[in-house]
Design a protein that fits this description.
Length: 159
């Protein structure tokens, strides 16, 4: 009898930012990873600095933006480890968030699901969600949208 190779571990990708809706997406991804023997990956994007009048000032602003995103990824990585018991995979990219997200999904075949949070009631889904939904048919992975209005208990019950 031939044993089937083990199924690849599901990787749940969350785009790291400072929004409340991201917190819900992160919790959902962590809970799903625990319940499905999966893994969480975090994408941090350093968006380009628009200030170009003085090169030195622009560089300082870019360094500050990088330090902020790196610090946020480190903090979120600790939360993921606390919730799942496993260190997440961290991706750090520079550019426009949407383009970097699409590029990462295309470049990394182990990513199996994109988890995004939507803004709370009355605020619309959020800019990244709105942009991605238009082109969702072109993605090679499904998107899970986690409503921003859900409580932790509701997320736990769903995941």
């Amino acid at each position: 009898m031939i044993d089937d190779p083990p199924a690849p571990r599901r990787v749940f990708l969350v785009v790291a930012d400072q929004s409340e809706e991201m917190r819900n997406a992160l919790r959902f991804a962590c809970r799903r990873a625990v319940h499905t023997d999966g893994h969480v990956a975090l994408l941090g994007v350093i968006e380009p600095v628009e200030f170009q009048q003085w090169v030195g000032v622009g560089r300082v602003m870019e360094e500050e933006a990088r330090a902020e995103v790196e610090g946020q990824l480190e903090s979120l990585a600790r939360e993921v480890k606390d919730m799942t018991g496993i260190e997440p995979t961290l991706y750090l990219r520079t550019g426009q968030k949407r383009e970097q997200l699409l590029s990462l999904i295309a470049d990394e075949p182990e990513i199996s699901l994109l988890v995004l949070g939507t803004a709370s009631e009355g605020e619309g889904p959020g800019p990244l969600v709105s942009e991605l939904i238009v082109n969702a048919g072109g993605l090679r992975v499904p998107i899970t949208l986690v409503p921003g209005s859900l409580s932790n208990a509701e997320i736990d019950a769903l995941s």
